[in-house]
Amino acid sequence: MDSRDMKPPAPYENAVTFQFGDTPELADELLALVLAGEKTATCGALRDFNDKEPVPEAGRRDVVLDGSGRPACVIETTSVLIQRFDQVDEAFALAEGEGPYEAWRDAHIAYFGRNGGYQPDMVLVCERFRLVDVFER
């Protein structure tokens, strides 16, 4: 059975599933930050959300997949703010756990550039979350 076909265990078998980043390596790197308690926020371009990965809502629990597509953990959204890229503040960037604001900004400009294009006024879904459960892999 391909790991991407693995369903999360009960009671999360019908939860939204997603990976952080855009490569298996980045997915694993960002997942490690979540598991270490260093990453408690994430953002994505509003344009990229769809029926398979809907915009998060406070209280919803999602399953995070590792770089191999295996269910790794469950996060619960605590808040969502939809705002422009150039409105993201340092506190949110630091909550993403990827370094100081300048590093966050540069990494996200590159990420969005690789994935549909970057604009300073592009609309982001900025999500804060808490770690709820960790699965054995």
From TrEMBL:
InterPro entries: ASCH_domain, DUF984, PUA-like_sf. This is ASCH domain-containing protein. Pfam families: ASCH. Residues 18-133 form the ASCH domain. It comes from Achromobacter anxifer. PANTHER family: CYTOPLASMIC PROTEIN (PTHR39203:SF1), CYTOPLASMIC PROTEIN-RELATED (PTHR39203). CDD domains: ASCH_Ef3133_like. Gene3D superfamilies: Sulfate adenylyltransferase.
